[in-house]
């Protein structure tokens, strides 16, 4: 997958303490969930060999032993080198309603941490 800059314009919420395991049918990779939107999410600290283009992956997102887990189907949209690791942005292809509810609660207009643009220019935060 060609390395690209991130271009998301949607509202995002930064998450702390959330991890994701992503499977391609042969390997399972682990990464840290950096931020989420209704349409996508960003994982940090994936191994550099994670670069398969045009595939859908199964992903499990968890916030810890007492938090619910969410099973998603995702497709990579961009990747960026981060030392010996990569950060990858994903489009969410399938997600349970509970994931959508979770993300809605985390977005800035519902008290989540604002992260994606200057607040005065934000279309979702007003």
Number of strands: 7
Structural class, from helix and strand content?
mainly beta
Total domains = 1
**Strand-residue fraction?**
35-45%
The largest pleated sheet is described as: 6 strands, antiparallel, barrel
CATH class: Mainly Beta
Radius of gyration using CA atoms only: 14 Å
Fourth-tier CATH superfamily name: predicted glycosyltransferase like domains
Give helix and strand order, one letter per element, not per position. Answer: EEEEEEEH
| Order of strands in the sheet with most strands | 2-3-4-7-6-5
CATH topology: Thrombin, subunit H
Summarize model confidence as the mean pLDDT. Answer: 82
- Share of helical residues: under 10%
How many separate helices?
1
CATH architecture term: Beta Barrel
Q: Unreliable stretches, pLDDT < 50, 5 or more residues? A: 1-6, 116-126
Q: Per the principal axes of the C-alpha atoms, what is the gross shape?
A: globular
- End-to-end Cα distance: 35 Å
What does this structure look like?
This protein has 126 residues and is mainly beta. It has one domain (13-113): Thrombin, subunit H, CATH 2.40.10. It is built from one helix and seven strands. The chain has one helix at residues 97-106, and strands at residues 13-14, 19-23, 28-36, 40-47, 57-62, 69-82, 85-94. The protein is globular and about 35 Å long.
Characterize this entry briefly.
This protein has one helix and seven strands. By secondary structure, the protein is mainly β. The chain has one domain: Thrombin, subunit H.
